[in-house]
Amino acid sequence: MKQGDAMTDTHDAQAYIDEMATSRGYVLDYHKIMAKHDFEVLKAANGLVNAAYLAPRSLDRTTKELIFICSLTVLKAPKGQIESHIRVALDLGLSAQEILEAIEIALPEAGVVAFQIGFDAWKSVVGATGIEPSVAVHDAGVVS
C-alpha cells in the first residue's frame, strides 16, 4: 500500500464513523476500533444493521428501538450498550415509562436477572429513584 492510501483509508473510516453516529445516534467501542483495524468488516456488519434497523420499513424507528432495548436486555448485553439505545429512544420521543415497559417484557421470558440488567441501564439513564423502607432491612446490594 502506498503512503497516501493509508491516509485515504483513515479519512474514509472517520467519515464512516461520523455517519454511523449521525444515523444511529451512538457508536459503540467496537465500531470505533473496527473502523481503524478492519474497516471492511465493519462496513459489512453495519450493512446488516442498516437493512434491519435503520432503513425505513414497516416498523417505525421508535418501535424498532423498543425491540432493540428488550432484545439487548434478554441477551444480557453490556449496560453501556443498552443505555445507548435508551438514550436514542428518549431522543426519538419515547417516554421513560414506555421504555421501562419494553424492558419489563423480558421478565416472563428471560427472568429477573436479565430484567435487572436492562432495568439498571434504564435507571441510570433516566435517573429513577425508589422508595426506601422505613423499617430495618439488609442491604441487597446494587446491580451493576
Keywords:
144 residues, mainly alpha, AhpD-like, 2 domains, 7 helices, 72% helix
Quick gist of this model?
With 144 residues, the chain is mainly alpha-helical. It is built from 7 helices and no strands.
CATH superfamily of the largest domain: AhpD-like
Total domain modules: 2
Q: What is the average of the pLDDT values?
A: 91
CATH domain class of the largest domain:
Mainly Alpha
The strand count comes to: 0
SSE layout and pairing:
Elements lengths: L2 H22 L4 H9 L1 H16 L6 H14 L4 H13 L4 H9 L1 H21 L18
Helix pairs in contact: 1-2, 2-3, 4-5, 4-6, 4-7, 5-7, 6-7
How is this structure best described in words?
By secondary structure, the chain is an all-alpha fold. It folds into 2 domains: 1-55; 58-144, Up-down Bundle (AhpD-like). It contains 7 helices and no strands. Helix 6 packs antiparallel against helix 7. The longest helix has 22 residues, at 3-24.
